[in-house]
Queue: 2 jobs
Job 1
Amino acid sequence: MQQPDKQDNIAKAQMLLATRRFLKLDEWLLSQMRGWQNQSEADNAYGLMMHPDTLFSKEETAVQRLEILGDWQQQYPTSYHAHCMLGMFWHEQAWVIRNEHGPEHEVEDSQWLGAQLCCDYAVISFLNAIACHPRPTHAFRHMMNLSGGFGEPYWLRALFAGKQPKPLHEQFNIQGSQVWQQGVAYLYQIGVAPVTHWPQQLPAALQNTRRHEEDALDYWLRMAMSVRHSDVGSMESYLLFHSSYWGGNDERQNQIIDGPLCAEFSDEERNQFRANALLEALGGDIADRDSPRAAQLQQQLATLLAQPLEPATRIALLNLAGTCIAYWQDDDHAGLQVYADLFAVSPQAMPGKFAALFISRAVLANEQSIDQQPEALSVLTSLLIRAINRADDPLLTAFAAAAVQYGLYGLPHDPDLSEALMDRAASLMQQQHVIESVGKDLLVLAHDMAINDDIEATHYLMTEMARRGSALHSYELFFFYRNAWHQDVPEALHNDSNALDCVLSAARSGLVPAMFSCANALREGLGGDVDYQQAMQWYQRASDAGHASADYWRASCALDLGSEAEKRQAVDISLPAILANVEHPERFEAAYTLGMAWMQGIGTKKNKYIAWQLMNFVLELNPESEPARQAVNELEGSLRARMGLWQDKRKVEGADFTAAYRQSSAPALPDEQPVAEIRD
C-alpha cells in the first residue's frame, strides 16, 4: 500500500484543526510524532506540521487563531500539542510586535514590553506542554529559540533558582506608565490581558536539571538533545544564535560544529552546519582582497565543496561564492567558472539575481569581445537557456527575450519566442509586484548590452518594456533618443519627437523625475515649439509630488517666458520662499536668479542695491561663484556704478533685503565711501 506523502499528511492535519476535531488531531499528531522522535522515518511530515503557519490558513487572523487554539487547550487541558501550538503562537506574536515598524527601525520600549508580555504567555504554554509529554522536543527547542531571541523571563529564572517570583507589578513599577499602556495595548488588540502572576513551581521534568549558572540557550539545547539525540533542527537554531546577526560569527559557529556538542551528528549533518555558517559569511561583507580572512574563506569553501552536499546547498554556496571569488582573485573569469560549476550541479540549477547581473557584466561589459572569450559566453548562454525553459524570473526572461530577438549570446533568432517571453516577463513583474526593482535591474542589463555594442537589442529591450507600461523605461528612452545616454547612440536613433513622447508617457504614469524632465523639454521646445503653459503645469505637478528642485525651475521659467504678472509672482513670492528654506537644494541658484531679476528689472523695478546685496549673499553661500563675483564687480567696479548703487540704496532707505535669509553678515556698503570718492 502506498504511503501518503507529506502534503497529504499536512492537509489531513489542517482539515482536522479547521473542523475542530481536536481529539482526532491529537491522536494523528502523536502517531506522527513517534516516528519523528525516533528518527526512523525519512519523509515524516511531523516537523512541518508543528507550526501554526502550517496548520492555519493565511486568511485566519491572530484573533481567530488564538480562539481556536484556546478552544483546543480548554477542551483537552492535557494535550501536549495544544499547549505547544499555543506557545508557538505567542512566540510568533512577540516577533510580530518586535518587527512592527520593520527591522531597520529601532524598537521602541513599548514594543519590547508588548513582545515580552507575549513571551510570558508563550513560556507558560511551553511549561504546560513539558508537563504533558515525556519527550517534549518542540517545547524545549522553542524555549531555546525564545530565550535566544528575547531573553529568559525574570520569573522563570527565579523558579530555576528555587525562589518564588514576584508578581509583575511588584517586580517592576511600570503599570501606570505610558510605556505600559502602549505595551499592553498590543495584547488587548487580540482580546487578552497580560499575565501578572506566574507558576509557583517548575514541571517535574525540569526540577533539579539546570547546572549552576548555565546559560539558558545551552540549557534548553541540552534538554532538547536529551530527548531527541542529534536533533538537527535544534542544533541549527542553536548555531543561528551564534551567527553575526546575534553578535557571534562564523568562526564561533565552526568551533561549536567541530566541538563535542556536534560529535554525535553525522559527517553529512556537520557539513550542512558548516555550509550554513559559510553561507552567512559569504552573504555578509566581503573580506578584503589578499587578507587572511579572504584566504581562510576560500579554503573553507574549497574544502566544503569537495564533500558530498545536498544539491540545493551546493547551489547556494556557489551562488554566493562567484562574485567573492572574482573579487578576491581580481579575475571575472574565476567568478564565471564558479557559475559554470553551479550550472553543472543539475539541469535546474540557477543563480540568484546578483549572480545573474555579475555574469552579464563580466561577459558583456568586458574589455574583450564575446568572440575572444567563448568560455565566458557559454556561462551566459547557459543562464539564458535555463531562464527560457523556466520563465519564472522576470529579469532573466526579459533579458532572454532581447537576446532571441536578434540571435545574441548563443541563442537562436526567434522573434515569436521573443514576443512571448517579453509578455511573460511583464506579467511576472505585475504578479510579483516588482515592476520598479526589476525595471532598474533591466536598465543595468541594457547598459551592459550597449557596452557590448548590441545597441539595437538595447533599444528593443527598453522599447518593449515601455510598450508594456514601464514608466522607468519610457523615461530612459527619453535620454536615449536625445543621445544623452551613458553610451553613444547611433545618429539614426536620435529623435526629439520620440524623446518628447516618451518623457510625456513616463510623466503621465506618475514618475516624478519624468515630470520635471518633461517640463524642461517643453520649456526648451523639444521636438516642436516651446509650450510654456504645459511646462509650468508639469513643473507644478513635479513640485506637488515632492521634486526638490521643481519650484525653483518653475520660477525661473516664469521669469524667462511668463507674463508680467507671473514674473512679479516669481520675484515677490516664489524665489524669496526658496531663499527662506535653508535646506533647499537650489537656494544658491535662486539667490543668483533673484539678484539678476533686480539687476535687470525683470518682474520688478530695477534696483542695483538689492541686486548687489543678493549677489553678495550668493558669494556667502558659494564663494567660488564666478558669475556672482562678476555681477558684484559690475555693480561696484566703477565710479558710475557705485554712484548708481548709492542712489538705489537711498530709494530703499538702506534696508537689508537679505537679512531674513542670511546666516552670516554680508559685507556692508560703507555709507560715505561713494560720496567721498565722488567729491574727490
Job 2
Amino acid sequence: MTGGPVTQVRSADMRDTAVDWAKRGFKVFPLIAGGKTPRDKAFYEIATADPLRAAELWTDSITGWPQPWNVGLLMGDGYAAIDVDVKGGKPGMGSLAALDLPRDTLTVRTPSGGLHLLYRAPRDVANVADSDKAPSPLGRGIDVRGRHGYVVAAGSTVEGGRYEIEQDTALADLPPLILDRLSAPRERLTDTQAPACDLDTPEALQRVTAFLCAAPVAVEGQGGDAATYQLACAVRDMGVSEAQAVDLIAEHWNPRCAPPWDGDELARKVENAYLYGQNAPGAASPAVDLGGVVDLPRPAVIVSKPIVRFLSDANAAVRPTWLVKEWLPREGVVLLAGQSRIGKTFLSLELAGALATGGGFFGRPVRERVGVLILAAEGAGTIAPRLEALRLHRLGGIDATALPIAWAEISDANEIGAIVTAAATEMQARFGLRLGMIVVDTVAAAFSVDENDAQLATAAMKALGKLAGDAGCLIVAVAHYGKSDGAGVRGSSAWTASADVILAATGEISEITGEVKDRKLALTKSRYAETGPIADFELRSVNLGVDEDGDPISAAIVRPISASAFDPHQALYLESFAGLMLAAAEATPDGRKGVPRELIRQHCYGEWSDSTPATRKKRFARIEERLIAGKHIERAFGAHGVEFVVPAPPVTPATLF
C-alpha cells in the first residue's frame, strides 16, 4: 500500500464537491468517507444530477450538518470512463498511448498515478476489468466504466492521496472505433430479476457459508471457470444478494482455489451468474414469506446435534453468551417493564446507545458492538430528538452517521418480519455489523392485544422468541406496570412467564403533581444470572436548540446515579456544550464542528455567579481537564487563534461511558 494517512477533509467541502459535479451534469452518489466503496448498495438508484438533491445526500437529516462522504460519479446514460491503471507496474499508460482516443477531455489524476478520462458515449457500454484471464479489449491496464459502473470524483481523498482534475475541459465523444471494441451491457432477464424471497437473511448467510466451506474448489486448467460460475449460481439460488455472494465467496471459498481468482475476476463471475442464471435469487431457499412474524422461518440446521447430552460430553454445560455481561444474553426476549412516566423508552435508548458504540450499560461492559432496530408502536415521532440528545450528551458527540441505530413505526405486527430483514441487510451494508438488538415499544401496542388475555400474551411473546431465534438477536419488549410497582407487569402473568429476562424500572410517582422521584432499575428475572437491584437513575433534560419561535427544544436522557456519573459542574459544562453545538457551532480548520470556548465559559460563569472570579476560573479549568481526560471533549484552534471545544472522536467506544 502506498501513500500516507488519509488527509483530513472538511465535510462542507465534500458536500460542495458533490454539488459541483452534479452541476456539471454527472449523477453523483456517496462513497464511504476516505474510501472508494459506495455507502449504499443500490447506489445507482440514488445517484442524482440534481444539485439540490446532491446537497441533501451529503447532509445529516437530524443535525443538518454536512457529511464527509467521498463522491462517486455514476457512468452510463451518456457517460463512460476510461480507467488507466498503473498500480503494481500495470502498463496502462503504454496501452493508452496506443489507443486512438481523444485526449482533449475532462481528465482526473488518481492517487496512484493513473488517469480517469471521461467521455460522452452515444450508447451504453459494459464495464471492463482487465485481468490475466480476461484481458481488456483496449489493452492491458485499461479498465472501462460503463452502465452501473462508477469512478471516484476529483476532490475525494483516499489513503493514497487525493483525486485531482488534471485537465478541466468539455467531454469529448468516445470514438466509434473504440465503441466497436466494447460490448453493450447485458441486461438481467426479466423473469429472474425479482428475488423469490427476501435475500441475505441470517439463515441464508449461514447456509451459504457452510456450503462454501465444503464446496470443491476451482483449479486452473481443470474447468475452473465453469466450476466458479456453477458455484455462484448455487449461492444465488440459496438466497443471497450479488454483493453478499461476492464477499462470502471471496472469504470462504476463493482462498482455497488454485490459484485464487483476482477480486475483479471473481466479481465478474458472480455478476454473470446473477445475469444469466436460470432461477430467481432464492429459488432454492427453504425460506417462506417473511411478511408475518408467525411465519418467520427457523434457521436451517447445518450441523446435526445429539438428542441428549451427558455431563461428560464436550460443551455439555450451557454458558450464555452475553451482550451485557451477566445481565443481557446475546439472544432471547427481555421484558423492560415499568410504570408510566418512569422512563422505559429512555432506558431502551440508553441500552441502544451502549450496544451501538460498544460502551457500557450502567457500568456493565458490552461484549459486542451491534446494530439496533427500534420498532415504535407508540411515540415514533419522539425517537429522533431523543437519540440526538443521547448522542450529544452520553455518546461523546459520536458522528450521527457512525451510529448504527435504525427505527421504524409499526402499526401491524405482520410488518415486523420484512422490516427486520431490511434493517439487518442495511446494517451490515452500512456499518459491517449484525443486527443484535430489536426494541419493541410497546409490545402490547405492536401486537394490538388485550394485555389481560393470557392466550394472546403468550402468542405475542412466543412470536418474539421465534423472531429472536430466527434473527439471532436480543429482543427488548417494552411493557407497562400497573399503577404501582407492587402490581407488577400490567395484564396477564403470561408476559412475565414467557420472558427470559425482566428489567424493572420503578419509582415514586405523584398522581397530583406528576413528579417522579427515586427512579430505580433492577433485574427481577433471569434464566441465566442472579437477580437484584442495578442502580438508581434520573432523567436529565438536554437542550437541542430553539424552534421557529425562539423557544427551547429539549429531550431527556438517562443519567445513572453512581460514583462514576458526572458531578453537577461537569454536567452543566456538557449541557452548555450540547446546546451551543446546535445553536452556535462553527467549522474548525480541520473540518470538525465546534463551539468557541469563550461561549461555554460565559454560560458556566453565569450559572456560578455566586462564586468569586478566581473560583470560577479554577473550576472551569478543572472541569475541562477531567472531560478531556475522559475523552468527552477535545480542544481545537480556529482562525486567529480562537479556541474551540469539539466532540472527542469515538475512536475507542468503550471510553465513552
